[in-house]
Amino acid sequence: MWKRSKVTDQTAAGQTGIKKKSKVPGVMITQFLEELPEGKSTPDFTRKPIALTIQEGKCAVFKAIVVGTPTPTITWGRANGEIHFHPDMCLQKYDEASREHTIEFPKVAPEDADTYKCFATNEYGRAVCTVALNVIAVGFSKTKELQKTQVEDTKDIRQKLKKRKEDGTREEKKMEPEEKVWEILLSADKKDYERICGEYGITDFRRMLKKLSEMKKEREEEIAEFVTHISTLKHIEVNDSDCATIELDMDLKDPTSKLFLYKDGVMVPFTTEESESMKHNLKQVGKKYVFTIKNLGSEDAGLYSVDVGGINVFSTDFKVPEVDFAVKIQEVIAEERQDALFQCVLTAPTDDLKWLGKSAPLSNSEKFEITVSEDKLIHKLMVRDCMPLDAGIYAAVAGIKSCNAWLVVEVDKDAASKGKKATRKTTTAGGANEQDLMTIAKEQQEMYQKKLDEKIEMAKKAQAEREAAEAVAKVEGEAAKKAAAEEKAAAKAAAKAKAAAKAKAKRAAAAEDAAAGKKKAAAAAAAGAGAGGADGGKGADGGAAVGVGGEGGTAAGAGGAEGLGEEYDSFEDSDGEIEGEGGGGVGGGEGAGDGGVGGGEGDGEEGEGRQGGKRKKRVRDGPLVPDTVIAKSNREASGASADSGTGPAAGRHESTAAGGHSARARHGPLMVETVSDPGVHFHAGLSDCKAIIGEAAELECKVSREDCEGLWYKDGEEIQSSEDITISKDGTFHRLKIHKVTEEYAGKYKFEADGRKTESLIVVEDPPRFPAEELEAFKNPVTVKKGHKASFKLPYFGREPIKIQWYLDGEELSEEATIKLDYSEGCSSLLLTKLQRKDSGEVKMKLKNEFGTVEAISQLIVLDKPTPPMGPLEIVEASSSTIDFKWRPPKDSGGCKIDNYILDRQQVGRNTWKKVGPIGPEPKYKDSDVDHGRRYCYRIRVETEMGTSELMETEDIQAGTKAYPGAPSSPKVVTAFKDCINLSWSPPSETGGTNILGYNLEKRKKGSNLWGQVNAPDEMIKGKGCGVKDVVEGMEYEFRVSAINNSGAGEFSTPSEFVFARDPKKPPGKVIDFKVTDSTYTTLSLSWTKPKDIEGVEDEAKGYFVEIRPAESTDWDRCNSNAITMTSYTVKGLKSMGMYWVRAIATNDGGEGEAQELDNYILATPPPVRPRFTDVKIKSFMVVRAGNSARFTINFEASPWPEVIWLKDGSPVPKKVTISNTEGSSQLLIPSSERSDTGIYTIIVKNIVAQESFSIEIRVTDEPKPPGPVETDENVPGTVTISWTPSPDEKRDDRLHYMVTKRDSSKSTWHTIADHIFNNRFTLCNIMPGREYQFRVYAKNDMGSSKHSESPKWLIPSKRAKFTVTMPETKACDLQCPPKFLLPLKMHTAPQGYECYMSCAIKGDPTPHVTWLRNNISLNTNTNYFISNTCGVCSLLILRVGPKDTGEYKIVAENSMGRAECSTKLTVRE
Known about the structure:
Elements: E1 2-3, E2 18-21, E3 27-31, E4 44-47, E5 52-55, E6 60-67, E7 73-78, E8 91-95, E9 100-105, E10 114-122, E11 125-136, H1 140-161, H2 177-187, H3 193-200, H4 205-223, E12 227-238, E13 243-252, E14 259-263, E15 266-268, E16 280-285, E17 288-294, E18 302-308, E19 311-318, E20 325-327, E21 332-335, E22 339-346, E23 353-357, E24 360-361, E25 368-372, E26 378-383, E27 392-398, E28 401-410, E29 428-430, H5 434-515, H6 519-544, H7 558-561, H8 634-637, H9 648-657, E30 682-684, E31 689-692, E32 697-703, E33 711-714, E34 717-719, E35 725-730, E36 733-738, E37 747-753, E38 756-765, H10 772-779, E39 782-785, E40 790-795, E41 803-808, E42 811-812, E43 819-824, E44 827-832, E45 841-849, E46 852-863, E47 870-878, E48 883-888, E49 900-907, E50 914-918, E51 924-927, E52 935-944, E53 947-948, E54 952-953, E55 957-958, E56 972-976, E57 981-984, E58 998-1005, E59 1012-1013, E60 1025-1028, E61 1036-1045, E62 1048-1052, E63 1059-1060, E64 1072-1079, E65 1084-1089, E66 1103-1110, E67 1117-1118, E68 1128-1131, E69 1139-1148, E70 1151-1152, ...
Parallel strand pairs: 5-11, 21-28, 22-29, 31-38, 39-46, 74-81, 92-99
Antiparallel strand pairs: 1-11, 2-3, 3-11, 4-6, 6-9, 7-10, 8-9, 10-11, 12-13, 13-17, 14-15, 14-18, 16-17, 18-19, 20-22, 22-26, 23-24, 23-27, 25-26, 27-28, 30-32, 32-36, 33-34, 33-37, 35-36, 37-38, 40-44, 41-42, 41-45, 43-44, 45-46, 47-48, 48-51, 49-50, 49-52, 52-53, 52-54, 52-55, 56-57, 57-60, ...
């Protein structure tokens, strides 16, 4: 039967632009631009795919060749549904040699019949063509029935999934497994299909995909009624706050549409507000919907479905593993640039443990190292090279359980190292005792194994009970079936007896009628009737005897065998068990007697009535081997013999004699159960050990019994305790300890006990190390004076070669004029000369070999003179009798303690300086020897043991003049009430040289110009605050204050803010809907809604503050100093890619409300960017020679940083393939490629926005082997058929083809006559008789061609015929014509001293005579000019042009038919 595809429109639907037709019929081209750039073109097909009609199960291939600049990208599609690319279903390929794009169906199926489209696209246009695939179905009735079943199954499943109540909700019932698996598949990713099918036992992958495609299409149509757009479907995830979330982004057509949440088909109530009482919560932020499940427990596992308006839009399966934390992670305090370790122990083995850092998932990288023990119980997270940015909360999540802890990074606060990068530390912070963790893990392993054994035992018991119940039910069913059969047999026997009686009566009546006839006939009839009656009676008796068994095991029923067949004709229809004529006694065979040993059966086949008709096939309605009854002991089970009639045989005999069949019941197991000792087994085996030379090493294992003794072996040889090795046993623990490891202890160790063994390796390492005493001495700081030298020396030991490096303040040192490095065996030294103060810092020696790295750190201190003291000068008091001032210490004391400050004083106006003398190490001085009104200047120097610094000269200070204080700070309102306003302020920075005595305070009403003093004129305010009570309720006031010293009152401060005289307001509440609207690398745009106004609880907000906190800091920074009134704000000056916490605070006259913080930190980065491949031209096909390496690099862009995944033929790439990912690119490397590496490699680049993928076909091949012998044959006259044996590589290379070349006797060269031949035969036409031909066949693939295989010479003898030549008549032709210039002379301008070449073309017959003239003077005889005339081309060459050559040049051509001339001018440039 034919299954034809539906032909669809042949244009590229949905494209905008200019549509034009191709030269190839059936191809439509859409041009995106009106004018194409030079050298660019739209895609086009030079060869389009050809329609196919093919039988089911065969291989179907479509081929196309496209052109276009730049090279177009080829995609395939189909009219109905999607193309599923899978090695068993559909493959897309490209041949670089032939430039063919192919799509191949290895085994075509009826559902593959469709109209397929091939799209060729580049940036300037798109070309599309269609092709039909028709499939001839094989075994139509079976396929049709299967299709019908599939359609019915799909409809049934869809009807089950769509079964709803009138309000759109589902029926309150648990989901069936079949409904559940399809709902999971509808929302699952394609990569998870195989795993889901494996879990639910789906084996027909092709049927599943087809059914799923139909269901998806129908669901999309249903969803479109309620949802405009749906994306970002995140399956259920567990976070570190004991909650699980389901996220999806969707744009509802009707915002009032109802949302429902179901678990295993049962509706789950949820709330849309934050509530501790409700377990399920829905939070909507714009188009984002987040369902939250709190307080997770094992009962929360199940299939969660989200419905909108009665339509399912998303489903996710939540599985809860039985796992908890035996040891939780603990807080780690690490120093800067130190490694931090978090550890935890689980109660059950698992790989699925997630690590989170600051609520973000972590994975293995250079920064984070995640490790799991062999038993999968101990999980570790190592944070490398801790920086302040890494501080925060880290969490581990296993199933629904989680634990978290802080990582605190302590920064070096040493002023000397401020601004310098800290030194990398090799130590590790955090981490519990490894031995304790191992002990806990072993205990958990034992508990887990015990629980597992209990579950297995319970499962076995349940299985045994279930089998016993099934056996009882089976016995009862068989008994019921037997009873029904006996009733049916009795009814049949009664019907037979009744029928026999009727037949007998009928015969008797017939006999009486016959007696009334003639006497002879009556006598004969009577004799016949009597014989028949006797025989019939015999048969009846025989039938009655049926079923009687004998002791010997023989059967009766022979009488029935002698009866006439006619007697059974009347009840044939009622007894279906009788066959043939004259059937014997039914049941005779079943009435066999039992004999022999108890439990045995006799053979009773003789009673089947073989003589009466055909033997009926026996039907076995019991087991082939009879069940035996096992007694309490073997002796009782043997039973009594058959002679005594007791035991099972007797019981069987009785029931069989009655005509029935007894089913034997087994009262115990067929075999007696035996309990055997399982022996010793290992609870914990040996683990590989790395030992350091000179240190101790220990191996330990644990067995199941304490009374077990074992032997230790090293490399197959038994070892015993000795001075260097101690073998011990502690309960179930067996230990081997090596006190001091040397190289000879490396090897494989084995412990064997009771036939069980466990092995491990001891690897001896010799890392570089320092002697302890020398290392402690090296750590002591080295102090030298400026210009002197410092030396550092430290011995070491370890396995050579050892790399030695010296560092000073983090920079590696090398040999220079002032740096000397010495390397000797086992020791290294550093000598620094001509040291300066700036050379002070950390000195580090680093050793590295194949086993590890070690560092030794010391300090270098270079002493020098101090720097001058630092200003500005702070005047504490400048009165008529005293000048008191302070200054700041020097920036660098030169590495020494300050001994004294040396002061000199000068009275302004004099030239002399008075030495005040050393005043001690304190940076302050009080000068009491001053004159009122005079000005003084001071010089200050610093004195240390290294010398005296340069001086610092102060400004002039006047003693005892009027100096008014500066203005205090603006008064700040502390509290405000209706009858009192409390204020505070800060003293002025300029005190006028004397102490502040008090303050004056003034107030002013809003709208007034008059200030009124608050305090009495003669009573100044002593403190830095005041309560103003002289206020009117409801009025608004502002205040200002001035300071008073010995000179009087100074300037007033700036006025305070206006404040109402009223009782304080309540602070506002939290802002609402606080969110980020936009972000860049340096800015962050925020918006929010004003908080609600609740009377008596929260008053209206008057303004807002925005605060940010870098992730590495604990302090909040306020972005706006003054409150803003708008509900949006843009934070500027952020650090690119920095992490920030953000919050907003509402404020009013009552104070600041509670801060509203964003749920997660914000990354200073632009909005996410969809992944995109940036290469202009990417190869989609690559051929590699076997043994060479294959390398493919692809560039992309995405934000944030995406996840890069490589697949080979839809599965993860093999381990031998190396993947290298850098920022913006990814490289795939296959070293030493093999033919098995051939396949389609796909890169998937995905981030939170979307994902993008690209596939390249990599073909690994080699030069093919030549084909076999070549044969030639003439099947049709004038042709030759060349055939050859296939190349051995044909089966391994599906792209291998053949090329045929020929050579005949008329030519000596070889010519290609056919290429791209995919079979082993070629026919050549137009063979010339009489010529000798020879052929060569080459095998070709992507790597090239093989050596040739040559055919024997081929010759078709020629039949010679008489050759006759007929010459045609010739006619005279007159070709004479006058001269004519075909190409005239051109104008010439030549530089002086260069050559000049003039030429023209002349036609004429007879050949014209040519004359060259310059200024009408002939040049034909002038030797300065080279003149030639070749085949009508006349030329004149001047070798060196001079001024004399300037003029008019003319050429004259003449013959007998006429004359022609042509002229030009030559201009000479200087």
